[in-house]
Design goal:
Chain lengths: ~325, ~450
């Protein structure tokens, strides 16, 4: 559902709709209240503190609203539910075939899952990373600004007395939280499903050496954190596209295309020289957490590349968003 | 949203500020930020590479002094990461195709390798795939390999009799070394260099930095033009005399090495016992191979030579004598002949059933593995076993015949594999010719051109 529907008081019923309607309504107050006033009913903010505190409070409130909106939106909840279903279905499927001829076949770490439920975490992230998670990223970030512009609510949002740059940060935080929720849900669902269906044991690393279950769980946390970190560059790219257009679906599609093109370029040996700087090149380096000697250097390379993409596309999005005329 | 050049109508205070810079200058200033970000990111990624290109300061040495220090160096424990790159002009055999990291990946492309070694008996080498590893762990005479993609362990060890013989031979060698005519490192270096200089120019060039360490670089240039090797560069650590990188350049591309193995990160500390130990992971397939005397010496000639002279006591010298002619050069096994010399040497082997090997015909594999091979040691049998494929286990198994067809091109009277550094000719009448020479030389040697 879009924010335009939510503004209409006729739409209602579910909790999610109510939240969205409340948010949109609180933003719409600005039209009547004028640009100088804080949005919403809480007038005491501006009265009690100086402009700095009022601005900080306005930001905090905006952030709260944004998170409520992003996580409360039905389409996002459905997306997260589908993501959560991936490890559950995968686990059940592997449990069913574990005694058949299909056991142990498949890409990546699938053959290890039946022996140790912890591997379901890696396997699920491994399977979601090439396409499903970039899709979530593009939906979250592509919609962030363009969605508001398309629904005609962006100009009301700009009435909140905070700089546009900070508004963009709030939008980025909303997208980041949605993506983070997706990654965490996949990992958590995989952890629970794996534990229930296959049990946990010592984790056999890629080198054949083993570590205990406790250390194994820590390594899975590392894998999850690295996967989430890997997606930040694509979020910045999506956010930039989102500031370019009022058509949210265009920004989403363009973001998916970037991740796909990056993967294709990464597979061409002729382009080996640029591979280390590609957005997706270091994505599967999460496997570093499954090596005996986890190399900080390898992990930091991935972090550095994502930081570079965030710096470039984040600043592009900022330049575009703070200079553009916003009429819708 | 529309273009920033339009007259502002928005209620946004930033864009409509009545005083200060015009919206247009403001917009320009803001777009300068991403431009600066691009430059800063570019600089951050390129400056470290430029900084490490400086030539470090090391005292001048001659090739003799350098080789002497390598020969006299204490065994150095180390752990580190190395990058291997092959630009041989062969098709890439990716880790996906081999079902995880596999030695076949080394045919082309870049691979990362991690090494742990205590400097003498024990070591672990891991070939890293994107989400897989192929590990080789050695402990004295025992070798384990573990492929994470196939979840398979191979364990090669010697039986009691063989390891006993080996111990005796080692002791004899050590006794000889402690008593008499072992050359000093200096003499050894001179001997080796004198021999090598018959075919090559050997010089020590400007020091280089490898893996953040100052290293001497030795340049070996073949004096003959008949070979595919243009030059070989070896970097030797200035402090520990451990080789840090090897680059082999082909005459086809003198700018980038056809083969390169270089540490990117190395530390000379003893690795922990855990790093060097091996135990088969739970659930993995384990293939045990115990080498017996009968494997190496089916008809008993070796044992006869080793024990013959002195009532059952072992004597390594007797075996070496039997396998060398009057001038001390080792004799060649039957069916193997050598033409050319130095870098342009061509080795020819007759009577190889290539089609049988490719189809995994056990008889053909056994025949080749059982004999002494011109290319090396007992590991050959295992390697051919691997190539021939036993067809078991999950995952993709490589179609050997297809790979052979892809790697080689047909010529009149056989098939040729030509790479940047090595050419192989397989003739239709069962001869295999190998040499670091142009294909044409092989064809001439075989009498096909």
């Amino acid at each position: 559902m879009s924010r335009a529907e939510a503004t209409s008081p006729a739409v209602g019923g579910s909790a999610a709709t109510a939240t969205a309607a409340a948010t949109a309504a609180s933003r719409a107050v600005g039209t009547d209240g004028g640009p100088g006033r804080a949005v919403g009913a809480d007038v005491s903010d501006t009265a009690s503190g100086g402009p700095r505190t009022s601005r900080a409070r306005a930001t905090a409130r905006l952030l709260r609203n944004e998170l409520r909106l992003v996580l409360g939106r039905r389409r996002n909840q459905l997306l997260l539910a589908l993501l959560t279903a991936v490890p559950v279905l995968l686990g059940i499927m592997l449990a069913i075939v574990s005694d058949s001829a299909y056991a142990g076949q498949g890409p990546g770490f699938i053959s290890r899952v039946a022996g140790n439920g912890l591997f379901l975490v890696v396997t699920s992230l491994f399977l979601c990373l090439p396409f499903l998670l970039p899709l979530v990223v593009s939906i979250a970030s592509g919609d962030a600004v363009a969605g508001e512009a398309g629904a005609g609510t962006l100009r009301y949002l700009l009435l909140v007395p905070i700089p546009r740059g900070r508004l963009l940060l709030v939008k980025a935080a909303g997208a980041l939280v949605l993506v983070l929720a997706g990654v965490l849900l996949v990992a958590a669902a995989a952890f629970l499903t794996g534990g229930l269906l296959f049990g946990f044991g010592d984790l056999t690393l890629l080198s054949g050496q083993s570590v205990g279950t406790g250390a194994g769980v820590v390594r899975m946390l590392g894998v999850t954190a690295y996967v989430a970190m890997s997606l930040t560059g694509l979020i910045a790219v999506g956010l930039f596209f989102s500031t370019l257009t009022e058509v949210a679906i265009g920004a989403m599609a363009a973001t998916v295309v970037v991740s796909v093109v990056s993967t294709v370029l990464d597979s061409l040996p002729q382009l080996a020289a640029i591979h280390p700087y590609l957005l997706t090149h270091h994505w599967f380096d999460f496997a570093e957490f499954l090596r005996w000697d986890v190399s900080a250097g390898v992990l930091l390379q991935g972090v550095a590349v994502q930081a570079a993409w965030v710096a470039v596309f984040g600043s592009l999005a900022w330049a575009r968003f703070t200079t553009a005329d916003i009429t819708s | 949203m529309t273009s920033p050049d339009r007259t502002p109508e928005s209620t946004d205070p930033i864009a409509t500020s009545p005083t200060g810079p015009t919206p247009r200058t403001r917009a320009r200033a803001r777009w300068a930020v991403p431009a600066v970000a691009v430059v800063a990111v570019g600089a951050a990624f390129t400056i470290p590479a430029i900084a490490s290109a400086d030539s470090p300061d090391l005292p001048d040495v001659t090739a003799e002094q350098l080789l002497a220090s390598v020969a006299s160096a204490e065994p150095t424990p180390l752990s580190g990461t190395a990058v291997y790159t092959a630009r041989l002009g062969l098709p890439e055999v990716s880790a996906e195709l081999t079902g995880g990291a596999d030695p076949l990946n080394l045919l082309s492309g870049s691979s990362t390798i991690r090494v742990w070694s205590d400097g003498s008996d024990r070591s672990r080498v891991s070939l890293l795939g994107a989400t897989s590893e192929y590990s080789v762990v050695t402990d004295g005479t025992q070798v384990w390999t573990y492929s994470s993609g196939k979840d398979e362990v191979r364990h090669v060890s010697l039986d009691d009799q063989l390891s006993g013989m080996l111990t005796v031979l080692e002791q004899q060698q050590a006794a000889k070394a402690s008593t008499a005519d072992v050359p000093t490192p200096d003499e050894l270096a001179t001997q080796i260099l004198d021999h090598a200089r018959e075919d090559s120019d050997i010089t020590v060039t400007d020091p280089v930095t490898v893996a953040g360490r100052s290293a001497y670089e030795v340049r070996i240039v073949p004096t003959t033009t008949g070979t595919l090797v243009d030059e070989v560069l070896i970097a030797v650590d200035g402090e520990t005399s451990v080789p840090l990188s090897v680059q082999v350049f082909s005459t086809q591309d003198p700018d980038s090495p056809a083969l390169e193995l270089a540490f990117t990160d190395v530390s000379f500390t003893t690795p922990s016992d855990e790093a060097l130990a091996f135990s088969a992971p739970a659930g993995a397939t384990v293939n045990e191979k115990v080498l017996t005397l009968a494997d190496l010496d089916p008809d008993g000639t070796l044992t006869g030579a080793l024990t013959g002279a002195t009532d059952g006591a072992l004597d390594g010298g007797a075996w070496a004598d039997q396998h060398a002619d009057a001038s001390g050069t080792p004799t060649l096994p039957e069916g193997v002949s050598v033409t050319g010399e130095g870098w342009a040497t061509v080795v020819q082997r007759d009577g190889v059933d290539v089609a049988g090997l490719l189809s995994g015909d056990p008889a053909a594999v056994a025949e080749l593995a059982g004999e002494d091979s011109p290319f090396g040691d007992s590991a050959n049998g295992d390697l051919f076993g691997e190539f021939a494929g036993d067809g078991d286990g999950p995952g993709l198994s490589l179609d050997t015949s297809a790979l052979y067809d892809q790697l080689t091109t047909p010529v009149d009277g056989g098939r040729v594999l030509s790479s940047a550094l090595l050419s192989v000719l397989v003739t239709d009448d069962g001869r295999v010719l190998v040499g670091s020479v142009p294909t044409q030389t092989l064809l001439q040697t075989a009498g096909l051109a």
